[in-house]
Design a protein that fits this description.
homodimer; alpha/beta; seven-stranded mixed beta sheet; 9 helices
């Protein structure tokens, strides 16, 4: 058995994480216990929520301790199984962390359909990012045909899917992203009706003639403040993420609840994990739309587990163009 | 015909309104046009939303101009009618403004049941404040038996009714108000299970052992920030008012949308006027509960139209103990 290389939390980041907040180590990995499978990581996911796990602030999940492996969802291959549900060679998705190997309880693993091509779709459009867009948009945003749906971080992992789902629901879609490459992707790849570059445009001005029925918010902060001045009556604000604030040492409040009275609007937060009992529903729909060519996607792959911290820091800075993934190993 | 005394806006208040922001004048009042009724004011209502009408900021209703009569809902008596639906002597409620007489379109008036005693209930528990509590709590807050419901400005007009409706729905109720008299009313008159005096207690500390399922918010600001740290998963925050901010010249944002993710919570604003098609439903239920002795209420009556500005300024400062009303005339 080779040693297991892992990325652990070396220090709690203060503000913007540094590569020195992470450490690479190697440990032995045992055999799977009864009911477990040993999984080799092929791709590890890089997501904004990981920043929250690194801080001590109370949140929806327990914080990481210094020395812990960084939490992540991975695509992996079963190497050895001590559970009847999995066999060596099976492709699975699970919360395995930034490491080469993990023994996982079989009940926490999700089988990847054998013919899914590329299999990394199970980490993106037909995985947690797709599910996040699906439940956030449809269950919280409740779009109706003809609605105007604005998405922030619209070229990001969740945003690119959310915009296309809104289009499928018959909505006008407006995406907000930073920089000319992402802006081009918004209209040319993801089918947004309009694109706003927050790095060069005045977001509030660009939305002057819009009446926003659904705001799918991934970023918070100033961009969201500008969007929220353009709400339509009865608007729904879906709080998916607030990534612009995740590195703030002491984030200031950004929202006036009185706006919800002016616009008779509704703001709601959600966590995709609460919808686990409905993942199959979302996966079925998303797979069909991907197969039909109705959903396009882009991955931003970094090679090598040791580069996961760099990919993560870049993503928090908006450097990624599409779903951030780290390739850890080739399939056997 | 006597002259019509009116309170008009003399100047837009900056910050806390001053009595000099209002003027008293006298004008002639004509006879009602076809489809109108001439109504003599008996009681005029004093409500926080009036502060919003006095400022220029964009909101859900048009601002008052300097010289306009202050908007208000009144209980009045029909003096002369040019519409078959009303006869002299009828008691009505309508948006008549701070003045002794108004010609109102008959369709905008609401008949007060002849035996309602006292008839000012039609401005309070069986009127717009009761309707506000009813729709805000039941349609937005959606309380379930056993839920913990926290109400701010809990001894105020809407708050006192909201707390009692939550109790009727089988909830544990916690009221927040300022000063020993109101605090006594909360538990002794309005049946709150617990009362917090924000003037002497640390609100967050007092809520340490609560898990708040519904927060019916009338005040905003620091009190709300403290409550929002004690939410239960799936909490509903009903934004009814933000009175602590109405006098702020440039109110700062007070809310972190990310909290809604942590607690998978929902925040929604509403306006009672949007529920006009359901006022009869609310009036019927509220009248029954009042008749049964299930809803208690308190009025805070100021005598004389000329004292309406003083009553209003005091209410914004929290000086009123119960629904603020101005008595303008005796019934003929």
């Amino acid at each position: 058995m080779p040693l297991n290389r892992r990325i652990t939390l070396a220090a709690r980041p203060v503000g913007v994480p540094l590569e020195s907040d992470f450490a690479l180590d190697e440990v032995e990995i045992g055999s799977p216990q009864m009911g477990e499978a040993l999984v080799r990581t092929l791709y590890a996911s890089v997501d904004p929520y990981q920043r929250g796990r690194m801080s001590e602030a109370r949140s929806y999940a327990k914080s990481l301790e210094v020395g812990d492996v960084i939490t992540s969802v991975n695509l992996g291959e079963v190497v050895e199984s001590n559970d009847p549900r999995f066999s060596p060679g099976d492709l699975v998705v699970g919360q395995l962390g930034w490491q080469e190997y993990a023994n996982a309880r079989a009940g926490t693993l999700r089988q990847v359909p054998p013919l899914l091509e590329p299999p990394t779709l199970a980490l993106h459009a037909i995985g947690l990012t797709g599910f996040t867009a699906y439940f956030g948009l449809f269950d919280i945003g409740k779009p109706r045909p003809g609605d105007t749906v604005v998405v922030s971080a619209a070229a990001g992992a969740v945003g690119q899917i959310a915009g296309q789902l809104a289009k499928l629901a018959g909505c006008r879609t407006v995406g907000i992203a930073g920089g000319p490459e992402k802006i081009r992707d918004l209209t040319e790849l993801y089918g947004y009706d309009a694109a706003i570059d927050y790095k060069s445009d005045d977001v509030g001005g660009a939305l002057r003639n819009e009446r926003v029925d659904v705001y799918f918010d991934n970023v918070g902060g100033e961009i969201s403040q500008a969007v929220q001045r353009r709400l339509n009556l009865g608007a729904r604000i879906v709080i998916c993420g607030q990534v612009s604030l995740y590195n703030a040492v002491r984030p200031e409040p950004t929202f006036h609840p009185g706006l919800l009275v002016v616009f008779r609007a509704h703001m709601e937060g959600f966590l995709v994990f609460d919808y686990a009992h409905r993942y199959d529903e979302a996966a079925g729909k998303l797979a069909q739309w991907v197969a039909n060519g109705d959903i396009h996607w882009r991955e931003d792959v970094t090679d090598g587990l040791e580069n996961a911290p760099r990919s993560f820091i870049g993503m928090l800075n908006g450097d990624n163009r599409g779903k951030a993934l780290v390739k850890v190993a080739e399939r056997a």
